[in-house]
Give the backbone structure.
Amino acid sequence: MTPIRAVKGMNDVLPDQIGRWQRVEQAFARTMSLHGFREVRTPCVEITALFVRAIGEVTDVVEKEMYSFAHHGDELTLRPEGTAGAARAYIEHAVQSREPVTRWWYGGPMFRAERPQRGRYRQFSQLGAEIFGDEGPGCDAEMIDMLVGFLADLRVPGVEVLVNSLGGHETRARYRLALVEHLTPKASSLSPLSQRRLQTNPLRILDSKDERDQTAVREAPTLHDFLDAGDAAHFAALLAHLDAMGTPYVVDPRLVRGLDYYTRTLFEIKGAHEKLGAGSTLLGGGRYDGMVADLGGPSIAAIGFAAGLDRLLIASELDIPVAVVEALVAPLGAAAIGSALVLARDLRRAGISCDVGTRGSSLKSQLRRANALGARLVLIVGESELAEGSVQVKDLDSHTQDRLARDRVLPFVVERLSKVHRVDEARENAASPRENQERP
Ligand code: HAM
């Protein structure tokens, strides 16, 4: 029978890789709490109309990348991103009535039916955050600086921050007209996709990688020529704040993004091009001051970002220790298994992670297993140890071996692993093993 395989573009993360995932997730959670963000968890499935309204009908995501389905009369979609759901939850729970400024972070799987390649998947993970209720450029700068720090924590090389301002809706409408006017005489030289976008979403042409399109937009007016006084002041203040913090950035007047909700500040951070190939954007975000009102909520300014966790893992040069447990308790033969189980339980109560060779295999194969688990200590309980109430402790780091009386084992191991905490508690527990409970 042909085995069933995972869906194309959706990957398993096996335990060997989980250490790296958790390390990045923990670094992110730590950055978030240092900056006063609290975690929010919203559903993976939302009403399709939410994404259509928030992200925009004429975007790649809504037009062709959403996993949508009908279920008992509801039109539903697997979330392609987290901002729309966060804004929906913010409105639904009237959060603005309880707090003037809200800082939320989230992580989890997102779904987009894109053509899979390295760093681009159909199920991928994002780590993101949103700030609701702060319209000033100070929090834009703080967010960008925070992200530069986070990527430094992850040891991501070649970080480049691109910033731009899209202006408000009116600015964009005026710019759109000017861009269409500039590109229409050159329409026949544009790529087929951009010829279509000229009618539907001309700003996306600025983002095209096609050389024909890049030539056509080279001389085009930029958004910056169209910013109104408020937009321009916001952008100037953002840059001044970044300068004050010494945060590196490059202004890219042609930076646009694939989601329609952005206003004013827009940013992307790239890194480690050679490892990620073409899609090297690690994270992106910006302001979306109109979305909350567009979704039927109050008029609340907002800004946020999301990082692709899969891409961060490719770009990060962090070394992650792979140890699964600190010790392996190795009984030699079936008679020693009971004693090994008690010893392992005592170790765990002292906060030491360990595995037990409950199959009672040969010493050689248990040492191999200890290596595979990254265990530093192997606690051997053989026939003679059982008879004299001792344990042999083999240290695979220092290549030493000690035979210890059973009641000396715990303090010795704790010290060897520099685990001073909970040792007294462990001794106490070991001295009074749990009573066997009678089963009815
Ligand atoms: P986005 O640019 O669509 O923005 O996605 C953010 C990040 O998610 C990208 O920079 C990339 O690292 C990752 N990503 C996107 N698509 C894929 C994929 N198919 N495979 C792997 N990684 C991917 C947003 O999603 C906005 N919600 C960000 C935001 C929050 N703006 C304001 N608030």
The chain has a mean pLDDT of 92.
